[in-house]
Amino acid sequence: MWRDAALVAGKDLRIEARSRVATNQVAPFALLVLVLFAFALDPNRAVLKQAAAGLYWVAVLFCSLLAVQRSSAVESAEGARDQLRLSGLDPAGVFLGKAAAVAAQLLVLELLLGAGVVILYDVRLASLWLVTATCLLATVGLAAAGTLYGSLAAGLKVRETLLPLLLLPVAAPVLLSATEAWQAAIAGHPGDGTQWLRILGVFAVIYVAFGVVMYGSLLEEA
């Protein structure tokens, strides 16, 4: 399973490195979202600082949707999904590999967005360990849930519009918990964020476990 996961993750990351979709399209889109938020709330800088954590994770959620759609589109082109299904790879390994590739892209984008929040919103991240732990756990949850529901919607003609409807309700607990943890980090009260880290960890484990068990069936159905 782990060998197959490494193969699939390497394949997806090589495709992204050659196409540069994440750097040329997703990253500018994410920064543009932050800029638009800044313009919308610029008259009141206090409100902008208070909402910085939520705005950051909304931008991350938009990026995750684009990354998952891109990951699903790669497998849908020219019968690649059928070839993947017939390749003999462990479905659990395929799921872990695709989720790992999405997570790697999201972590890079989150680092870029974090710098954007600090510069544009004049926010100081007082607890870096809490910020880092939140990003890691939330990224695992978003990548696992996105890969799972991306595969579920991959076989449908309306997958571009159906995927957000499927993913957003599932990602809402992750978004809420990550926002609360970031607010605690910005306020300089890391103790208040540890309970939200536990919630993020629970959702990450649930989504990963469910994907490992169910991805094979979803791949066949899709």
Shape: globular
Helix/strand order: HHHHHHHHH
Q: Which whole number gives the mean pLDDT?
A: 82
Number of domains: 1
Helix content: over 70%
Low-confidence stretches: none
Gyration radius over CA:
18 Å
Number of strands: 0
How many helices does DSSP assign? Answer: 9
Estimated structural class:
mainly alpha
Describe the structure in your own words.
The protein is an all-alpha fold and 222 residues long. The protein has one domain. 86% of the residues lie in helices and 0% in strands. It contains nine helices and no strands. Helix 2 (21-41) runs antiparallel to helix 4 (52-76). The relative contact order is 0.15.
Quick synopsis:
The protein is mainly alpha-helical and 222 residues long.
SSE order and pairing:
Elements: H1 2-19, H2 21-41, H3 45-50, H4 52-76, H5 80-86, H6 91-121, H7 128-154, H8 159-187, H9 194-221
Helix pairs in contact: 1-6, 2-4, 2-6, 4-6, 4-7, 4-8, 6-7, 6-9, 7-8, 7-9, 8-9
Which tags fit this structure?
222 residues; mainly alpha; 0% strand
